[in-house]
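Thread: Newbie trying to understand structure tokens

Hi all, I'm a second-year student working on a class project, and my supervisor (Dr. K.) asked me to get a predicted structure for one chain before our next meeting. I've only ever worked with sequences, so writing a 3D structure as a token string is new to me. If someone could post the tokens and maybe explain what I'm looking at, I'd be very grateful. Here's the chain:
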Amino acid sequence: MGALRTVAVHAAAGVFNGLYKLFCLGKRRDEVLFVSRKADAPSYDYLECGAAFKQRGLAPVYLTQRLGAKTVFPYAWLVLREIYHLARCRVCVIDRYDPVVCLIDFACESPTEAEALALHHDFPREPMVVQLWHAFGAFKKFGYQALDIAEGHSTEEATLFKIHRNYSWVVCSGEGARAGFAEAFACPKERVVPLSRPTQRRMRELAQQVAAAGESMRQTADGQAEWEAGGQPQCEAAAQASAPRKSASRKPVVLFAPTIRKYDKTAHPVQDLMERAGELFAQAPYETHWALHPLESGKEAAGGVPAHVLEADFVVTDYSSIVYEAYLLGKRVVFFVPDIEHYRHSPGLNVDPTNVCPKLCARTQDELLAMLETWAQHPETYPHEQLERFVDGAFEGSDEDPAADIADFVLRKLSESENN
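---
Reply by user tm_fold:
Sure, no problem. This is what the structure looks like when written as tokens:
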């Protein structure tokens, strides 16, 4: 890492802290700040949590900007506004690594003896910082679980940028993800809470609506039925996208949705399949759809309920957390893992599908094609219990209304902090 870059990061930290102290001269307000650097509009999770906080007396403020080569000046303006609101709000919610949050020296709680053993034991008291991670579960390793390897950061880089520092609390999808998240964020496990994301509730609702629509169509002579999606605008688009496909005579839809490859020399088996799609799937008893990771193609990672998953019958992935979304939506998942030996090392796996659910794993193209053909023609033979084993614990402990649970938890912790 160059000396110039090191100087630049330290200079940025100095500017951030100087501005923060200046803005702190004003009074704090009953405000909750939501920040994202990967989307131009607030996610469904942010909007739902914002509404829950508003009902409890905290006004939501949304600062979102997708960072790119052409957004340098708008992003600089975003950073300035972010620092201002960090000095004025009571709560800040982020969904990824945020350099501004991680580089500022906030007023923090005193850690317990056990908490002080973790690398990161800075727990901001003012404002309270909540990491609402953008992915369900803890499938592949990330953050501090994946240092000094091709798909991760170097230790030097993580130290310089203070990656994942300053989280008062980390929200994960369920009990089964707590240990992985604690390792990834280098924080005490006690600071990781299984409250999940509002998208979980919405996906379960949509799955129930799809199931009800399917039952209605089976009871209709011509195989047609109306389907009312309802819900939030971001979810309505996804629900309506699948409505025309609800026909008893249509072919099953197989969606190929791999994880993002951060290292350009890494093998990309699903992309290899896509390049041979005309040859491999010409006579298949199913339709094939393709959805590379949005960040891999420079698109926005907006979150919410993905329409392409909602309209699929099968989801083929390698190591993407989309498996949890597919599970919540009632889809059948297949793992295509010809490069798993490499992936076990870089970035590594918290859950190895070949060990946990081997009947759902294909290591070669021929194996994958055979599995898809069998299950497309005889979906009742799909081993659902294998997928249950993979997901086991990923949503354990979360309740029916994550947005309300998150708001109540944060306000309770704020009250406890003020009383102490």
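A couple of things are worth pointing out once you decode it. DSSP finds 17 helices and 13 strands in the chain. The CA atoms of residues 12 and 250 lie 56 Å apart. Feel free to ask follow-ups in this thread.
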